[in-house]
Amino acid sequence: MSTYSYFPGCSLEKMALSYNQSALQTTKAVGVELQELEDWNCCGATSYFHVDELLAYTMVSRNLAMAEKAGHDLVAPCSACYKNAYFTNAYLKEDEDLADHINYALEQDDLKFSGDIQVKHLMEVFAEDVGYEALKETVSHPLKGLRVAPYYGCQIVRPKKDDEDVENPRFFEDLMTSIGADPVDFAYRLRCCGGSLLITSRDAAFRLILELLQNVEQSEADVIATACPLCQTNLECYQRQINQEYGTNFKIPVLYFTQLIGLSLGIPTKKLGIGSEFVNAERIVTYAKEPA
Amino acid sequence: MVTKPTFSQEVANLLHASHGEPLDTCIQCGTCSGTCPVADFMDYTPRRLIGMINADMKEEVMESNTFWYCASCFHCTVRCPSKIDIAGLMYALKRYSIWKHQYAEDAVGPVFSETFVKSILRSGRSYEPVLAPSYIFSYGVREFLNEAHTATNLMLKGRLPVLPPRIKRLENFKKVANRIIPMEGGK
């Protein structure tokens, strides 16, 4: 059984509580242990990097150093937290002076960054560590006939890391296939949901959300699957406002990929946090059936 | 006598942690502008903005809304044939504009970002309700009511925190920050 230090991030404490619940339930079911990092702090989102870069790296490093102390690789379910942790880890490993400066600050909390752990997105844990085949074997309620739009968004694949395929990733589709669902093709699967523009430049964010929902609707997907709390909130909680603004009539459920995996493993909906959506997802639940 | 750096040199200096190529390698191909999903909301497209920086058109660049419209999706960055980290550049311009306290009058971004940072330094974690005043007053009546409706729904669904979260070793956390940016009361 593999064990990870788990960095839920601020959104998963409340706004995306269902992501947290389903992440913990599903990993447990496939033999992965997520140990919540003790006393973690905010990763800085994008805002911190707008104001002060050095302080932003320091805040992220505190979490990295705590994971090192625990002796496990760090897993983040939120794409923004993941991106910040991944790249801070990489930069500090390359830049000894920067690491020294930050370690001088971390002394105040009895911590030290040494760069000896890896940072992973929660989806990587399922795709690479558990693996598609092993996951498929544990599926008891395949989501047969469910048309899923696997929405990558941005920071799970960008900026580019090593030699990954940033133009045509397939890991999300493959993951959905292994739980018995049908991933649909849609052009905007890698396009931005608007992120925090929803707050700072509403006009732009609303149009991005509108175009994404239109694109998903054309693909005739039953549900959008996400791997980021900000994508989920923008695409789901703002559907009503989008409908008002543009006279549309969207009613597309948006679930976390872990909620869909959970359904396929036969985990009760309540334990997966299903029921806290703005757009009712009951119809999606009915796809999870034991094969006759 | 020390020569004053040009605007393009100043911006380049702010890109120290970015691993991209320098801005003067830009071939003005426009892949960034074609890729950017919000380019038509911007005063100048990313391609044009880079051209303007390289031409030292400081005032026009700083008065533009372009970089505050960047959502950090990094699509331009991964596609740039000259390997310029364009999203990284937008971050640098945001920092430059906050540092110089120079931005478009109606920009919500700078105030929101600063409020966000202050709130984290206070408690260690982010908390939506304290962030709201930094942007809600820029909304019109209809937007305000819509937003209030969404917030009420979030609360009813148990998705909005009632109490601000706080990390346990907050004092240590503040001391760590103080070693990077010394503040009042810090050691």
Describe this structure in words.
The complex is a heterodimer of chains A (292) and B (187). Chain A folds into two domains: 2-121, Glutathione S-transferase Yfyf (Class Pi), Chain A, domain 2 (Up-down Bundle); 138-285, Rossmann fold (3-Layer(aba) Sandwich), CATH 3.40.50. The longest helix of chain A is centred in the N-terminal third of the chain and has 18 residues, at 53-70. Chain A has helices at residues 17-29, 47-51, 53-70, 79-94, 96-106, 122-138, 171-178, 197-200, 202-218, 229-237, 239-246, 257-264, 282-285; strands at 2-6, 32-36, 74-76, 119-121, 147-150, 182-183, 223-226, 254-256. In chain A, helix 3 crosses helix 5 and helix 4 (79-94) packs across helix 5 (96-106). In chain A, strands 2-1-3-4 form a four-stranded parallel sheet, with helices on both faces. Chain A is α/β, with parallel strands linked by helices and 292 residues long. Chain B is mostly helical and 187 residues long. Chain B folds into two domains: 7-99, Fumarate Reductase Iron-sulfur Protein, Chain B, domain 2 (Orthogonal Bundle); 109-180, no CATH class. Chain B is globular. The interface between A and B is large, with 69 and 62 residues.
